[in-house]
Automatic annotation (TrEMBL):
This is Trafficking protein particle complex subunit. Part of the multisubunit TRAPP (transport protein particle) complex. It comes from Rhodotorula taiwanensis. The keyword Zinc does not apply. SUPFAM superfamilies: Ligand-binding domain in the NO signalling and Golgi transport (SSF111126). The lineage of its organism: Eukaryota, Fungi, Dikarya, Basidiomycota, Pucciniomycotina. InterPro entries: NO_sig/Golgi_transp_ligand-bd (IPR024096), TRAPP-I_su5 (IPR016696), TRAPP_component (IPR007194). GO terms for cellular component: endoplasmic reticulum; TRAPPI protein complex; TRAPPII protein complex; TRAPPIII protein complex. It holds the Pfam family TRAPP.
């Protein structure tokens, strides 16, 4: 083989090696691609590269803000009322097509709320302990209460404020039955965008909130049957009453602790 032939073979080998190394090394391939692009006149490669890098960085920041955010620092993150009204309206519409009566309708909404309340039993005390609403100083570590009035007050104030940004409007005890308590809401947020037809006037979409309250009471050791009832008044046409009917064991424990 002549020197000329060996030189051409060596050049072809070097060229092939360069191509394989560019395939195996993404950085090298990117560098060669950017170099060849920039060498073409009139092609705005630098602008395109800057835009891609900026968008990638912004996406990374948004992803980190959503998924890397600590659970205890999510207080104050509010959901748009319009988005919630649309979502809840779709939930009501979906449920309506799959039930045959008002009682079944409210039961399904209550089951959905119960699943939410079961998670709030642990989440709300944790966030309230680390980042309390009423004071900059942390309160004492949360302990289980055995008395009825503190847990009802907790639901009326702390839980309701966490969910809707304000406490409930009233907390009353039934005059006819000792095992019944009522939490009144003059303008329930979740039902503002719901229009109940006249033929279903007994329906209360506040059953979702009733399910949340029932799960919280069950998790705290105060089993009860919680239902929602629409009680409109001339001043408050969307007034809803959350009726809490306690189990006999709760009243027996309350009577035993009455002197303590």
């Amino acid at each position: 083989m002549s020197n000329r032939d060996s030189s051409s073979v060596r050049d072809s080998v070097v060229s092939s090696t360069s191509r394989f190394s560019s395939l195996l090394s993404p950085s090298a391939a990117a560098a060669s691609s950017s170099t060849s692009t920039l060498s073409q006149p009139g092609f705005p490669a630098a602008i395109g590269a800057t835009t891609t890098a900026t968008s990638t960085t912004g996406l990374a920041k948004r992803t980190a803000a959503i998924y890397d955010r600590p659970v205890t620092k999510s207080r104050g993150a509010e959901v748009s009322l319009g988005a919630w009204a649309f979502l809840f309206g779709e939930i009501v519409h979906y449920t309506q097509q799959r039930v045959s009566g008002i009682s079944e309708f409210e039961k399904r909404l209550s089951i959905l709320g119960y699943r939410v309340g079961a998670r709030l039993v642990e989440l709300v005390p944790l966030r309230d302990y680390l980042y309390p609403l009423s004071s900059i100083r942390s309160p004492p570590p949360p302990t289980r209460t055995l008395r009825l009035l503190p847990i009802l007050t907790y639901v009326h104030s702390t839980l309701y404020r966490y969910l809707f940004g304000r406490p409930a409007d009233s907390l009353e005890r039934s005059t006819g039955n000792d095992d019944e308590y009522m939490i009144g809401d003059d303008d329930m947020v979740i039902t503002r965008a719901i229009q109940v037809p006249k033929e279903m006037s007994d329906l209360s979409c506040g059953a979702l909130v009733a399910g949340i309250v029932e799960a919280v009471l069950d998790g705290a050791g105060f089993p009860a049957r919680v239902t929602a009832h629409s009680v409109p008044t001339p001043q408050h046409p969307r007034r809803t009453v959350i009726l809490i009917k306690l189990e006999p064991d709760v009243l027996a424990r309350e009577a035993a602790l009455g002197g303590k």
